Amino acid sequence: MPLFFVLLLLAGVFLNAxxxxxPGKDTQRVSIPNLPDRLEGFRILHLSDLxxxxxxxxxxxxxxxxxxxxxxxxxxxxxxxxxxxxxxPLLDLIQALPQDIPVFLVAGDEDPSPILSAPxxxxxxxxxxxxxxxxxxxxFLDRPVKMEFNKSTLWLCPADLFTMDLEAAxxxxxxxxxxxxxxDDPQSPENGAALRVVExxxxxxxxxxxxxxxxLPEHFYIALAHAPLGDDALILAQQxxxxxxxxxxxxxxxxxxxxxxxxxxxxxxxxxxxxFAPPSALTGEGGFMPDKALLFGVRSVRxxxxxxxxxxxxxxxxxxxxSFRLFNPPEISLLILxxxxx
Length: 342
Fold this sequence. Notes:
This protein is α/β, with parallel strands linked by helices. It has helices spanning 2-20, 60-66, 88-96, 128-136, 160-163, 166-181, 189-214, 231-237; strands at 24-31, 43-47, 73-77, 103-106, 138-140, 145-149, 152-158, 220-224, 238-241, 244-247, 254-259, 268-269, 273-274, 276-277, 287-288, 297-301, 304-308, 331-338. The chain has one domain (23-338): Purple Acid Phosphatase, chain A, domain 2 (4-Layer Sandwich). The strands form five sheets. The chain has a six-stranded mixed β-sheet. The longest helix is centred in the middle third of the chain and has 26 residues, at 189-214.
């Protein structure tokens, strides 16, 4: 009898490992209050937490999942490179996607820093992995980007722009610029690199102001985050004016947040779901047997739809004894926006 259980355990380990090598797809209808009719059926391909993994040659297993799908934007919400620093799997994916579909990319907490403040032999403050992703066709999203679809306007923005004190950020950058220029050795490699970062960030702020001058309340706003947003962030991002939610930094309302980070909780138990949630802005102190809606899928946060994709890898945010995926195969997501509620 003990031999039987050992064999059963080994078979389970083998099957789980096999499942983890074959990603799936979560096709999800996301209900958006007051969605413009022209955006009904707008489709977003959402991937996160690749962590430099390869799913077949040139990511063919991922591409097979979406070869028959029509989608209008691709959103990559962080940790696509991961701590290994291996950008090639990400490049293989970007290069294989349709060239006429915009691909938006934000960095995650385990990615190499996207902006380098130390000397690195390049005039651009962007890290090499970001430059390579841009060359492959991605849009590194650190400022608002406008997208037109079916005579409607969408704005995709990094989530921190919705919560940041933009005026204070501008003053801080100007002070830092003055500090570097008036230092004893402004031409040193270290100060030169730091100045390039400051000037780059000042340019971002200028482009934010330019975008704000084009934005209208009726436009559709999407935030891309790596880690999901919690109540505190939404309190900063939106305020209530005459009983109607209005964004603090931009006109109109934030309608959708896309995030990743959790990898759906890593370890699941049949029927019961995720075993553990790490501490975060959304999950609080975290803990055992959390509500699965905190870790993946669609959930409303202060009236804003937030979709957390199950992800494609594993993260160091979990204890080592939960550092693998069990009964939780990696997934990509195809989101279909709708004004209907189910």
